[in-house]
Write a structure and sequence with these properties.
This protein is α+β, with helices and mostly antiparallel strands and about 280 residues long. It has 7 helices and 15 strands.
Length: about 280
């Protein structure tokens, strides 16, 4: 498998970074995961916008142009002989001395990873599992898609198989998000999702669903909700840029309509239509 490392296409077996990279030493790095459809990275400008916001917070000086990233993606697809793939665009702070640095990082390490997508001919449903691990609060003003992922790893260790997704509660026992997903549910003709005040990552597919709800004339509410609210829902689904929109079949003793849910099907149909349009951003709405 070939990857991009600081502008060069190399074999992943030949890739190396310095042990003094502060992304390794202090976790100062951010990343975006996305996938391609017909060779095009869906909503790439939205991903880059979130990445740049994180880099600004981390004091890493870098601006990536969407056209340049699209070209990088195309090159790797060709080099790896793949039509579509999973991508991770990673920016690490770069080399520094031992000790905390407050000056800007001006020579970051940019890596574009890729791996094959797992395609299936059916819609895979998930079982929700309430995690014992609590969702930690962001270290800064809001949650970044950064190198700090221990909280999600601890949560994922509680799951017994790939057909499960864990749900974190906050310290106040409000619903927040999954280990790698955002959460939506539908009840009484309204769509619900936790507010960002719960410390969730502002997911790109979450953002798409929030915009799509207006297009579909489905009222949307964000807020702080207890787990009892979720058990009263008619439909529940998860969002993730790689897994797309994932229907939930059941949670504890509650069964949902899963992939057969009318609201889920409306969002999925619209999402799949948009993936065929090679959209860079949510200005499709």
């Amino acid at each position: 498998m070939y990857i991009y490392l600081n502008g060069k296409v190399i074999s992943k077996n030949d890739a190396m970074i310095s042990p003094y990279d502060h992304g390794f030493m202090y976790g100062l790095g951010a990343f975006e995961t996305f996938r391609t459809y017909n060779g095009f990275p869906f909503l790439i400008e939205e991903h880059l916008k979130r990445l740049h916001e994180a880099l600004n917070e981390l004091n890493i000086n870098l601006k990536l142009d969407s056209d340049a990233v699209i070209q990088m993606v195309s090159t790797l697809l060709n080099k790896n002989k793949m039509n579509d793939a999973y991508f991770r665009l990673n920016v690490s702070a770069g080399v520094g001395d031992i000790g905390l640095q407050t000056d800007p990082y001006v020579e970051p390490v940019v890596i574009l990873y890729t791996k094959p997508l797992v395609e299936t001919s059916f819609i895979s449903e998930k079982e929700l599992v309430l995690l014992k691990t609590k969702r930690n609060t962001p270290e800064g003003e809001k949650r970044l898609k950064s190198h700090h992922y221990l909280n999600s790893i601890l949560g994922k260790r509680e799951l017994s198989n790939m057909n499960q997704e864990g749900i974190f509660l906050t310290r106040e026992d409000y619903i927040s998000e999954g280990t790698v997903s955002n959460l939506f549910w539908y009840k009484d003709n309204m769509l619900f999702t936790p507010h960002t005040s719960t410390g969730i990552l502002e997911g790109i597919t979450r953002k798409w669903v929030m915009h799509a709800s207006k297009r579909l004339n489905i009222p949307l509410e964000t807020g702080n909700y207890t787990i009892e609210t979720l058990t009263e829902a008619d439909e529940v689904f998860l969002t993730n840029s790689i897994q797309e929109l994932v229907p939930v079949s059941h949670f504890q003793d509650t069964t949902f309509s899963g992939a057969e849910g009318e609201v889920y099907q409306k969002f999925r149909e619209l999402y799949m239509r948009h993936t065929k349009k090679q959209c860079k951003s949510i200005d499709i709405f």
